[in-house]
Amino acid sequence: MLVYIIRRGLQSVVVLFLMSVLVFVGVYAIGNPIDILINPQADQQDRERAIAALGLDKPLPEQYWTFFTGALHGDFGKSFVHATPAISLILERMPATLELAFAAMLIAVVFGIPLGLWAGLRPNGIAGRTIMAGSILGFSLPTFWVGLMLIMVFSVVLGWLPSNGRGPTVDLFGLIPVSFFSVDGWRHLMLPATNLALFNVALLIRLTRAGAHEALLQDYVKFARAKGLTNRRIIGVHVLRNILIPIVTVVGLQFGALIAFAIVTESVFAWPGMGKLLIDSINVLDRPVIVAYLLIIVTMFIVINLVVDVLYSALDPRVRLTESKG
Amino acid sequence: MYALRKFVRLAIAIVIVSLLPFASPSSAQELKIAVAADVTSADPHFFNLFPNNNIAEHIFDKLVQMDPDSKMIPGLATSWKTVDDKTWEFKLRKGVKFHDGSELTAEDVVFSIDRVPNVPNSPGPFTAYTKAIIGKEIVDPYTIRFKYAAPYPLAPNDLSTIYIVSKKAATGATTEDFNSGKAAIGSGRYKLVRYVSGDRIELIRNDNYWGEKSPWPKVTFKIIKNEAARVAALLSGDVDAIEQPPIADLPRLKSDPKFTVTSKISHRVIYFNFDHLQRVSPFITAKDGKPLDKNPLTDLRVRRAISKAINRPAIAERVMESQAVPSGQLVSEKLFGHVLGLKAEAYDPEGAKKLLAEAGYPNGFNITVHGPSGRYVNDEKIVQAVAQMLTRVGINSKVETAPMGPYSARASKQEFSFHMVGWGASTGEASSPLRSLLATFNRDKGLGAVNWGRYSNPKVDYVIEQALQQVDDENRSQMLQQATKMAMDDLGIMPIHFQYTIWATRKGVQYVPRTDEYTLAFQFKQAPGEMAKR
Predict the structure, then answer these.
(1) Does the beta-carbon distance from B232 to A41 stay under 8 Å?
(2) pLDDT on residue B7
C-alpha cells in the first residue's frame, strides 16, 4: 500500500509538470495580457514599460523557468491584475467554493441515494417512475437556466431567498471564513447549492437505482431472504454495501468536478468562489492565477482519486491496492 | 435504513427552516449597487481600469473633477492657470481633510504624482497622464506649479485622472496595503470599510467632506458580472440599482412601475477600422475567392461606399433598441472638439454600388468583418448587421468575433481587414481619439498607439500635433475640429454610433447619469417621500 501511494505520488508530479507547461504555452498563445489590461490611452512606450514590468518581454522558456523555480519554492507568482500572490488569491476564495460544493454534495447524497434506492426497489410503482422521469430533467436542464429559474421563483416572485452573493461569514478556527453558522448564510447558500446539486442528484438516483435493481437479483439477496432476514437488513446492509462502490467513485469524482467547475453556478449567483476567479482571470489572461488554479485542481483530483482507491479497499476487501498495470 | 430515514428527516427540517422568510436587516439609508465588472484593487494608482477608478472616485479626490457632462470642474484645486506656455499653476482648496484627519497640502499632491510611475507590477499605469510633467514646484502649501517640456494644454485634463492620496498614509505602502484598507486614505466622499476581491466593496460616508455630501451614509457595491443575475438582483430587491442592464430586458424594466431606467449618451464611439496598408489585405478576396492584387480599402471611394452602405439609424433603433445615436465623428455633442453639423453618413446603397463600380469593383468583393464579443453593448449584433448591409451592396461579408483578449491581440498586429472597436474619450476631448486612433503610428512621439488600421495622413498629423501644443482653448477647439473633419472626410476610421450608458434603479432612487459611464453612489438621489419606505 505504501509503495502504491509513493508510486502514485511520483506519477502525479509528472502530471503536474506537464500540466503547467501546457497551460503556460496555451495562455501565451492566446495573446499578450497587456493588450487587454492597459488603458487604451497609453502610448507605445507605456505599453512596453508595462510589458517589461510583468516580465512578459522575455522569451517564453525564460518566463517558464522563472515560474518553475518560483513554484519549487512555493511561489506561483503574483496576479497581474490584483498584485496579490496567485496562491493566496485562490486560497482566499477556496472556502466559499468548498462550502458550496459540500452543501451541493450533501444535498445530492441525501436526496439521490434514498430516491434511487426507492426507484430501484419498486421500479414499476408510480413513485419510482416519477423519480426516474424527474432525474431525466435533472440531467438535461442546463445549470445556467435552472439557476435563473430558481432565482426567478424563490427570489423575484416569492421573495423568500436572496438572489445572489454569500451570507455573512464567521472565521472557523480563526482562519477559514465560513457562512453556514448563520441563518442568513444558509439562506444565501440554499439556491446555489441546490442548483449545483441538481445534476448530481439525478446522477446518484440513476446509479443507485441501477445498482439496487441488479443487486436484488443476485444470489446473496435470495439467500438472505431465504435465511429470513428482515427487508430492512437486506437492503440497508447487503444491497447498499454492495452497490456503494460505483457510487463512492462517482461521488468522489463529482465532488472534484463540483469544486473545479462550479463556475456557471458561481457566476449566476455571484458566489465569490474560485470558479468566478478562474473565469475572470481567463478573461484578462491573468496567467499566474490560471496556472496556479489549474495546478491546485489537478492536485485535488489526484488526491480525491487516491482517497477513492483507498475507500474501495475499505468497502470491498477483495480490492487490493497493488501496483496496477494500467 | 433507520439511520438513513433519520438523516432525511433532518435534511428536510433544515430545508424548511432555511426557507422561512426572514427579513434581512437592511438599514433604510444603505444603498446597494450591483456593478458589472470586477474591481481588481483599491490602490488608485495601480491599474488604470474602469471599475477600479469607479471605486476610487468615491474614496479619493482629484485636483480637477468632471461633471456629469465631462466638463472639468474644480476639485481639490479651486483654480488653475498657465503662468507661461510651459508652466501650469494650481491653487489648492484650503481646509481639506483626509479620512485620517490630516490636512491636504501640496506635499500630498507631489507625492501622489511621484507615486504613479513607481507602483510595482502595474499592468496599466497612469503614467500617460503624468510623464509630460518635467518639474514640480511647491510655491506654498496651497500652490503648486507643474513644468512641461513643450506648451502643454492638456495639464488639467491629465490631472483629472490622478487620484490624490495621503502622503502620510501611503508612504511606503504597497498595493496590498491599499486593498486591506490601511493605506486607502483619501479625502473623498466615502471611506473604505472593506474591499473583498471579486465580491463586494463596502463604503461609509465621510461626514467631514469638503463639498456636497452624499445622501447615503452606507454604500455597498456588489460585483455581479452576469447580466441576467444583475437584473434578478434588482427585481428581487437585493440591490437598489444596477449598471448596464441587458438591452433585451429594457422593455420589461421600463414597463414595470417599480423600476426606473436612466440612460445617457456616453463618451464612447463605436467605429470600424479599415486596413490602410498597401498590401494584399488578409481577409479580402475577389468574388471568385482568388486574392486581389491590391487592398481595395486603400481607395477612398471603396471606404466611402462601405460607409454609405451602412444604415446607421436602423442599427441604432433596432440592434441597440434606441440606446445609441448614429455618429459621423469622434466625440459626442457636449464634449470638447465636437464638430457641430458633422452628421453621420446617410444610408445610400445605390450610391455605394456606384462608387464601388467607379473604383473598379462593380461586382464587389469578399470580406470578413471582425468584431469583439461581450466588450461593447451588443457588439456581435452590430457586426452582423454591418456584414448584412455590406452584402446587400455586393460586398459579400462573413462575420468572425472573438473575446476582447485574443481579438485585440490580433487587431493590434494588423491581422484583420475591417474590424470593429470602441473608444471612450475619457479626457473629455477630441484630442484623445485623434492622437490615439488617427495620428500616424509613431512610437517615439507616442502617437497613434491604437491606430490599428495604420491610417496615415501627414496633413492630419500636422493639425493634431499643432492642436496638442495649443494652450488657448478656443484655438485648440478649432484645430481639433479641423483635424476631425479632415480625418472623417478621408474615412480614416468609420464611426457607427455613440452608445448609451444605461442604469436601472428601483423606484424612489434616481440616478443623475454621466457621460463618462461611471456609476457613482453620491449621484443617486432619493426621491422625495420615499424615505419611509423599505
Answers:
(1) no
(2) 56
Looking at residue A166, its amino acid is R
> Quick check: A87 contacting B, CB < 8 Å?
no
pLDDT for residue B48 is more than 90: no
Residue A301 has a CB neighbour count (10 Å cut-off) of 19
Dihedral sign computed on CA atoms, order A102, A106, A107, A113: positive
Number of domains in chain B: 1
Q: Which residues contact B279 (CB under 8 A, 6 or more apart)?
A: B295
Indicate whether B204 belongs to any domain. Answer: no
Q: Closest Cα to residue B503, out of B494, B490, B513, B488? A: B513
User: A193-213, pLDDT tens digit by residue?
Assistant: 999 998 889 989 988 888 888
Between B532 and B448, whose confidence is greater? B448
Better-predicted residue by pLDDT, B34 or B408: B34
Q: pTM for the whole thing?
A: 0.83
The CATH code of the domain that includes B409 is 3.10.105.10
Among the residue ranges A266-280, B79-93, B326-340, B383-397, the one predicted with the least confidence is A266-280
Question: Span B41-50, mean pLDDT?
Answer: 90
Cα–Cα dist B136/B109, whole Å: 10
B125 — contact with chain A (CB < 8 Å)? yes
Could you list the residue range(s) of the whole structural domain that residue B379 is in?
266-499
The H-or-E segment that residue B35 falls in is strand B30-35
| Contact assessment for residue A171 and residue A183, using Cβ atoms and an 8 Å cutoff | no
Angle between helices A240-260 and A183-216 (to 10 degrees): 140
Q: Is residue B507, in this structure, part of any structural domain at all?
A: no
What are the cell numbers at B421? Answer: 472597436
Residue type, A248: V
B179 interface with A at CB cutoff 8 Å: yes
User: d(Cα A110, Cα A180) in Å, to the nearest integer?
Assistant: 18
* Cβ–Cβ below 8 Å for B405 and A35: yes
Residue B339 belongs to a domain:
yes
Q: Which amino acid is at B471?
A: V
ipTM of predicted assembly, 2 dp: 0.79
Over residues A89-129, the pLDDT tens digits come to 888 888 888 889 999 999 999 998 888 888 888 878 888 88
- Which grid coordinates are listed for B100? 485620517
Q: Which residues of B touch A37 (CB under 8 A)?
A: 47, 49, 123-124
Mean pLDDT value across chain B: 89
- Any CB–CB contact under 8 A between A272 and chain B? yes
Distance of CA B399 to the CA centre of its chain: 25
Q: How far is the alpha carbon of A126 from chain B, nearest alpha carbon, in Å? A: 21
Cβ of B41 under 8 Å from any chain A Cβ? yes
Q: Test B197 with A276 for CB contact under 8 angstroms.
A: no
Asked whether residue B456 is domain-assigned, the answer is yes
With 50 as the cut, is the pLDDT of residue B27 above it? no
Within 8 A of B126 by CB-CB distance, chain A residues are 39
Domains of chain A listed by start with CATH number: 2-72 (no CATH), 90-315 (1.10.3720.10)
